[in-house]
Amino acid sequence: MVWTVAALAAVVAIGAILVVSQVVWTRRRHDLFRCKIRLTDGWLPGYRTTWPKRATRAVWARDVLVVFHGVAFVRVEGLPVACAQGSVRTLTRRDVSWLGRNPIALDLVLDCGPRLEVAAPASAQSLLCGPYLVAEVQPDRGSQSSR
Fold it and tell me: The domain containing residue 43 runs over which residues?
């Protein structure tokens, strides 16, 4: 009985250490940025047309947006992107929350067809654009909801 409790305590401790190390790793990487992702067209499992409550972290690996989900960012998903649609635009806090004072957004078209809108803090503009630098240098035309 004592050995079972000790073994269970060791497994829980090792799990906690792994979760904490994953969180620390994702926060120390300088190429990761906080973001929220929603669908604007099509269907993709795990994504909705409304903004999620929690922010995820993402990083570009060539033309694939690698997204870290979950409480400890342990679920990893790669989204192969065909192209960026339009340019980076500024949103309001009412549009998307918990991404700072003036969040920005970029529309992406995936290889498999769906369109995503990725929002990030304004300080992460170059990280959000990743390989699609043309989207960063085009003039901001404001939120599409104001048109």
Answer: 31-146
Exposed, middle or buried by CB within 10 Å (0-12, 13-18, 19+), for 97?
Answer: middle
CB burial class (10 A; 0-12, 13-18, 19+) of residue 119?
buried
CA angle (28 as vertex; 26, 31 as ends), nearest 5: 75
Domain shared by 14 and 61, yes or no: no
52-98: pLDDT as tens digits: 999 999 999 999 999 998 877 778 999 999 999 999 999 998 899 99
92-to-38, 88, 141 alpha-carbon distances in Å: 16, 13, 14
Q: Output the pTM of the full model.
A: 0.78
Number of folded domains that form the chain: 2
Same domain, 1 and 50: no
Determine which helix (DSSP H) or strand (DSSP E) holds 20, and give its type and residue range. helix 2-28
